[in-house]
Amino acid sequence: MQPRHQPIARDAMAYVLAGGRGSRLGELTDKRAKPAVHFGGKARIIDFALSNALNSGIRRIGVATQYKAHSLIRHLQRGWNFLRPERNESFDILPASQRVSESQWYEGTADAVFQNIDIIEGYAPEYMVLLAGDHVYKMDYELMLQQHVDTGADVTVGCLEVPRMEARGFGVMHVDERDVITDFVEKPSNPPGIPGQPDLALASMGIYVFRTKFLIEELRRDADNPASKRDFGGDIIPYIVKHGKAVAHRFSSSCVRAESEPVPYWRDVGTIDAYWQANIDLTEVVPSLDLFDRNWPLWTYSEVTPPAKFVHNEDGRRGSATSSLVAGGCIVSGSSLHRSLLFSGVRTHSFSSVTDSVIMPGCEIGRGARLHKCVLDSDVIIPPGLIVGEDAEEDARRFRRTESGVCLITQYMIGRLAH
What we know:
InterPro entries: ADP-Glc_PPase, ADP_Glu_pyroP_CS, GlgC_bac, GlmU/GlgC-like_hexapep, NTP_transferase_dom, Nucleotide-diphossugar_trans, Trimer_LpxA-like_sf. By secondary structure, this protein is an alpha/beta fold.
């Protein structure tokens, strides 16, 4: 085989599928798509897939949007407009815009690529890396591209190694000893194990690598099939498994880990509980996900804010935070935070307390309020004296409360309290 003179990523385009609603996140996705949901104090969920592409050396990126895309598009325009055409870089936002037919939105994940074939062909990348825009993880796609070339696969599918019975909610790969996929099963009740590791199964991450020419042929073939649902997991991948060569790529072989990260980290933060937990996990002394890793930075829109400020120093009225992340522009005034995450521009007033909570940008916590185990949507104004997290029945009546006791609060819910 000829030695490589440059990374394969230089000849690749990353295409992020970011149209999903994420309805299990409840009211958090009433006005934004799941990839646009805030995460980690500064970022949005989509920034993980985009940062992985950039850090892997990919300089051509497209993002297909659909559901309630305004806040996502605004974030992408603000935070990802630094890629320059004169350096052979590109960044395209690709909303469903009836480019193929006047009645047609993106019908499925495959259709979201098919409708933009002309744009892809205009850049002429040799490889395509297709990504879901709604997962939290760090991964070097160059290693997956290398495996794709070395194995001669028609498609390489990114896979998680998970305990076998936990794979029932995923698309699962049945593989042989060389990780060639012999069958693809969607959400099986009895998932197939991995050869030599019968207690584990390979679950699809929604990450696919193709040669561009082959991908376009497959998309056109699929578009001509009236029975297809135009979906990669449901149509394209199963067809290639039967008629071509599909190979699994294990996340453990390309995940990026800082010294402090002992195990591969991947999260689908698709439920309120999972979203809350992944954010709160970041407050640990040594978190499972290291946002401080300068070797693999999380790129995002860097808002210009003043430093966080903590004021008052009297007994019972002391601006303090323990085991917490506090973004710029926050003022913690005579109030206490513990094991909480505050996004930019949050104000907490005197005698209030916030514990085990995720507070999105622009929120205000009124004087004497007590919040425990809450997720606050953007720009929520908590009235003085409000108590959440101490009376389960009262919480469930006023807010969206999960079985594990997390309360999601929106400004609409606060508005109803006055009536």
